[in-house]
Design a protein that fits this description.
The complex is a heterodimer of chains A (about 130) and B (about 425). Chain A is of the alpha/beta class and about 130 residues long. Chain A contains four helices and six strands. Chain A has a single domain (about 1-125), classed as Barwin-like endoglucanases, CATH 2.40.40.20. Chain B has a nine-stranded mixed sheet with strand order 5-4-19-18-17-6-7-15-16, with helices on both faces. The chains are: A alpha/beta (about 130), B alpha/beta (about 425). Chains A and B meet through strand 1, helix 1 and helix 4 of A and helix 1, helix 4, helix 6, helix 11 and helix 14 of B.
């Protein structure tokens, strides 16, 4: 299913943002809020994992039922390293990467795990 | 500090609201409660001692080992002095006093000085350069505003006390409360703020420029040619234009929904132009919802010292400004910088991964209270006191009002303040540069 990702601050992510290696931060930032009808279209329930992919990368996130529906085709992910796998650094000459309105393909990911922060970045950043 | 003491009128060092009515109860050098604080503020004060870096660290042969400040400062200065194009990034979660030292350091090393404005309201500042900004203080909003628009922001999550202290739920001299104010939210989702609004206008993602331009067209008395604009019937924008004209004192607060979506600076350009147009019919003002507690201060201090608010390039020996070229994410993703100094920020988490990889490929020096993916990717880590909790200083609220941050508790033993660390690095860099 095609979707548009919108990133942003969430209360849970904001509360945990100075505890980056905590379970609380991962729970808040490695999740995506999906419209209930889109969850049904994907054939999944809240709490199951989905894979989001585009030309920049691919990441597994935990699906959550959005409390801000209806917003068919729009997926919210809190700011953080998980969603930044998908964001484009091209700033269109402004300095600002495009962090909202990102086109992705989303599919259910049964059996795939959400990577923790060290796993997610350790691989990408040469083990640092 | 053995017994409990209550410290009143503390400024919160979380978001750009800088709420200055926090009451902290302190005992045995720990904050045990924070009255009047929102959930974000509670978390910041409550978890001040979690995931801290307590000793300077340096990477030797690929592995971290503890060191002391003297050695860490010497190595940091050597990296910066030898670099041809270092990036000095962050600055929005520290004090104006530290930012001021940062400007001198950037000039001394001929680097690029950029703050997190680049990745929040930077496009908005570009729009201000183009069209100007009709704005005011939050006090004026509280006393006078009868129409509040939140466009592309969700204050319930990002600025939880904004509505109660400054806008629709606040009690002002001429506007007494919620019933005397109208609230309109424009967003792509039905957020918690949208649910509290008198009107919610749900536009399509990336539809902001179109929507704002439609309202401007209606204000000029021209007809909208399209039937559907930003996913809504064009008549919706005709009605909205009438509502905006009908207010006595309107304020548009805009968020990253404008700056991060397609159009970026042009979206804010359209918003500020709309507000300018409205002033021919009524009183209308605009203000960005600034995120970090002192990102506004970073813009102020950098602009005083260099003429520019962010993305300042000293590589030619004088300040140059060209966001998109001289901004942090662009420099990191192109692989242009050969070293980085990160102050009170976590770009490895917050940059697009491609840019984070670019940053991680060069020597990084990080000054931060907490362990983060950026400290873990660094070559030198200098722990610092938390500004506004363990160190004092000055911060600018989102409306440009300076406030005094206070030292409430002592930092962990031996941990220095940002200003002390930066000043020490600056002195050492000057020594290496032959005292020039």
């Amino acid at each position: 299913m095609k979707a548009i990702v919108v990133t942003g601050r969430s209360l849970a992510q904001g509360k945990a943002k100075e505890k980056k290696f905590s379970e609380e931060y991962m729970k808040a930032s490695a999740a995506c809020e999906i419209d209930p009808d889109d969850l049904a279209s994907l054939g999944i329930q809240a709490g199951q994992n989905v894979r989001l992919a585009n030309g920049k990368g691919s990441v597994v996130l935990r699906a959550a039922k959005s409390s801000q529906a209806p917003h068919r085709g729009i997926v919210f992910v809190a700011y953080g390293p998980w969603v930044n796998v998908l964001t484009d650094p091209d700033s269109d000459g402004t300095g600002m990467p495009t962090l909202k309105g990102i086109e992705v393909e989303i599919q259910s990911a049964p059996g795939e795990e959400v990577q923790d922060l060290r796993g997610l970045l350790g691989h990408s950043l040469k083990g640092r | 500090m053995g017994e409990e003491s209550v410290i009143r009128n503390v400024v919160c060092p979380f978001c750009g609201c800088c709420c200055d009515d926090i009451e902290l109860t302190v005992s045995k050098n720990s904050i045990i409660s924070a009255k009047n604080a929102c959930a974000l503020s509670q978390a910041k004060f409550g978890s001040a001692r979690e995931e801290r870096v307590l000793r300077p660290k340096e990477r030797v042969n690929g592995k971290f080992s503890e060191t002391d400040y003297e050695r860490a400062v010497r190595r940091s200065a050597k990296i910066l002095a030898e670099a041809k194009y270092p990036l000095l990034w962050g600055w929005s979660c520290t004090s104006c006093e530290a930012q001021r030292v940062g400007v001198e350091l950037a000039e001394e090393v001929g680097g690029v000085l950029d703050n997190t404005t680049s990745t929040c309201h930077g496009p908005g500042l570009l729009a201000v350069h183009d069209v100007g900004e009709s704005t005011c203080t939050l006090g004026e909003v509280r006393h006078r505003a009868d129409l509040i628009i939140y466009w592309g922001c969700n204050p319930v999550h990002a600025h939880p006390r904004h509505m109660r202290r400054y806008t629709v739920q606040s009690e002002g001299r001429f506007r007494k409360g919620r019933e005397e104010r109208k609230m309109i939210v424009v967003d792509v989702r039905n957020t918690e703020a949208a649910k509290m609004a008198d009107e919610f206008i749900q536009i399509e993602p990336n539809g902001d420029y179109e929507a704002l331009t439609a309202i401007r067209t209606c204000l000029k008395g021209e007809e909208l040619e399209q039937e559907v604009i930003a996913g809504l019937p064009s008549t919706r924008f005709e009605k909205l234009a009438d509502e905006l004209i009908d207010c006595e004192f309107g304020v548009m607060f805009f968020g990253l929904g404008l700056t991060m979506s397609k159009g970026k600076s042009r979206n804010v350009d359209a918003a500020l132009s709309l507000v300018r147009d409205l002033n021919s019919k009524t009183k209308f003002l605009a203000m960005p919802m600034r995120g970090h507690f002192n990102v506004t201060g970073a813009n102020e201090v950098f602009a005083w010292q260099t003429g520019y608010p962010f993305a300042i390039d000293f590589s030619q020996g004088y300040p140059r400004y060209n966001p998109g070229d001289t901004s942090g994410v662009d420099i990191a993703s192109r692989g242009d910088c050969d070293a980085a100094l990160v102050v009170a920020s976590d770009p490895i988490s917050n940059f697009p991964l491609e840019a984070a990889k670019g940053l991680a490929s060069v020597p990084i020096i990080t000054i931060d209270p907490h362990e983060t993916p950026t400290t873990n990717a660094s070559d030198v880590v200098l722990p610092s006191a938390m500004v506004g909790i363990e160190a004092g200083g000055t911060a600018y609220r989102m409306d440009g009002v300076p406030l005094t941050l206070r030292k409430i508790i002592e930092p962990p033993e031996g941990v220095l303040q940002d200003t002390e660390i930066l000043s020490a690095i600056l002195r050492e860099v000057k020594n290496l540069n032959g005292g020039r």
